[in-house]
Specification:
Blueprint (H helix, E strand, L loop, with lengths): L21 H4 L12 H8 L9 H4 L7 H9 L3 H11 L3 H7 L11 H4 L7 H15 L14 E5 L3 H13 L2 E6 L7 H4 L8 H13 L3 E4 L9 H7 L2 E4 L5 E2 L12 E3 H13 L4 H4 L9 E5 L3 H12 L4 E5 L11 H9 L3 E3 L2 E9 L5 E15 L5 E5 L5 E4 L2 E4 L3 E2 L3 H4 L27 E3 L2 H4 L4 H25 L5
Parallel strand pairs: 1-2, 1-4, 2-3, 4-16, 6-14, 7-8, 7-14, 8-9
Antiparallel strand pairs: 5-15, 10-11, 11-12, 11-13
Helix pairs in contact: 2-4, 2-8, 4-5, 5-8, 6-8, 9-19, 13-15, 15-16
Length: 484
């Protein structure tokens, strides 16, 4: 009997691809991790225990066939491994880079529970698909037989792109409308290159364009066309705009110059990476160079901001978060990366006010902060932060970046469609059995339905809504029913 290539986790230790040294990586926006050599990927994949109940797949929103493609990788059958990973995910190399594997697949790996260290699933996934691109194994998007029906997708982020690909495979004419001048949403303009190099996103977008999906970039629904006008153009619509409204900080001085939104800061940086002219970067208002930077927040967006500020040449970078390290929402790996690069985390702290100098609202010069402590657990089970009296402190700041998360924009008003139903949180209300909104033939998916979440969930939502739209459009074609 041939030697079993798997279950090597006892004799083979966990090994991630090496990271570049902090002094090297803090000066550029290239990804910080090297890629596995073929032997390294095979060796790490061979550590999989091939569980009868694969918790890694169970806890993956896409339910990727992880143990199966790990086995194929260990056996050197990389093309088959890629084909299997591609069956459930439209963007496996992107998920391999930016998914919080420590909270999903790897965090639920059985051998992690045994104390041997999880299989490095994300790094293997990235290796498989990058290899597929290099070898020419990534097949073009081939449309299904033309159905004579068209679909409009509003939003070119991960949910919209995933749905567009599936709908094109089904044979529909697909048009994608996005307010930005490049597709990809937060993949393009929100996530820095050191986590996701932009060529990785652009080649995915180009594949969709080559497959016949029509992109209308720089297109604002409500300005260039109302929602009703788009409904007249298409047999069905999908709203997949994501959530972009920044959560506010209510504190004196928040309107001072130099107190900026996280997405404005990240978008300016990413545009510079594309070679665009960015006046707000050039004049210094969205540029951390030479400044004392304070980032407020503890999620992955805050981690993106602190690490971007380092690369822009900030004098110092501090992150204020109201809970402690164990209770932060962001990836622990990202915190570790940031600390290696020189970021200082000030746990259990929250801004009380923003001090400013100069006329009018002035220019920010410092953050007055309160020390916090964790009180009793709230309804969610998390211990609620509360002010620890008498322990205020001040931090110098030339640039303050607010990274407290995002809420839904007022889409009924923006889209000129007052009858588009929303929840009390402003997200779109859908029938969860069909994923259709209050408007006939208008569906919604991704963060605009579930609230700010992970890219992998957006891809899953795009896959799910495409199936519902396909079923609805087939029925519409049979009955000749028009949208209301």
């Amino acid at each position: 009997m041939a030697d079993n290539p798997m279950l090597k986790f006892v004799g083979t230790g966990q090994s991630y691809p090496p990271k570049r040294e902090p002094d090297s990586r803090r000066t550029d926006f290239q990804e910080i991790a090297e890629r596995y050599a073929v032997t390294g990927a095979e060796e790490q994949a061979s550590r999989c225990s091939q569980c009868g109940v694969p918790y890694c797949s169970v806890h993956c929103p896409l339910h990727n066939h992880i143990p199966d493609w790990l086995r194929l990788t260990a056996e050197g059958r990389l093309r088959e491994a890629y084909q299997l990973s591609n069956m459930t995910s439209t963007m496996p190399e992107i998920c391999g880079r930016i998914c919080p594997q420590d909270r999903l697949c790897e965090g639920n790996c059985v051998i992690e529970f045994s104390g041997h260290g999880a299989v490095t699933i994300g790094s293997v996934e990235k290796f498989i698909t990058d290899t597929a691109w290099e070898k020419g194994w990534v097949e073009p998007l081939v449309p299904g037989p033309e159905r004579g029906q068209s679909v409009g997708v509003i939003g070119a982020g991960p949910a919209g792109l995933a749905a567009a690909e599936y709908m094109r495979r089904y044979g529909y004419s697909v048009h994608v409308y996005d307010r930005h001048d490049r597709a990809g949403g937060l993949l393009t303009y929100g996530i820095p290159g050191f986590k996701l190099e932009k060529e990785v996103v652009m080649r995915r977008v180009q594949r969709l364009k080559d497959g016949g999906i029509v992109f209308h970039e720089g297109f604002e629904v409500g300005h260039d066309a109302t929602l009703d006008e788009l409904r007249d153009r298409h047999d069905a619509l999908l709203i997949a705009t994501g959530v972009y409204k920044p959560r506010a900080i209510k504190a004196p001085g928040v309107g001072a110059e130099g107190v900026v939104e996280s997405l404005d800061f990240l978008t300016a940086s990413n545009r510079k990476g594309f070679g665009d002219t960015v006046p707000a970067f050039e004049n210094g208002s969205l540029n951390a160079s030479g400044k004392h930077v304070v980032v407020v927040g503890g999620g992955d967006t805050a981690m993106d901001c602190v690490r971007t500020a380092v690369r822009q040449g900030a004098k110092s970078v501090k992150c204020l978060y109201r809970r402690d390290r164990d209770n932060m929402p962001g990836s622990q790996r990202e915190v570790a990366n940031a600390e290696e690069e020189g970021v200082e985390f000030v746990w259990l702290s929250a801004p009380q006010s923003f001090e400013a100098t100069g006329e009018g609202a002035g220019t920010v010069s410092a953050v007055r902060a309160s020390r916090m402590r964790l009180g009793t657990p709230d309804a969610s089970g998390r211990r609620a932060p509360e002010v620890d009296p008498g322990k205020d402190f001040t931090v110098d700041a030339d640039l303050v970046i607010k990274a407290l998360g995002f809420d839904a924009e007022d889409l009924p008003t923006l889209f000129g469609s007052s009858d588009l139903g929303v929840t009390r949180w402003g997200t779109l209300r859908v029938d969860h059995s069909t994923l259709m909104t209050s408007l006939d033939g208008v569906f919604a998916a991704g963060d605009i339905v579930r609230g700010a979440s992970l890219v992998v969930w957006a891809i899953r939502d795009g896959r799910d809504v495409a199936e519902h739209m396909h079923g609805w459009l087939k029925q519409k074609a049979k009955t000749g029913r028009k949208a209301a």
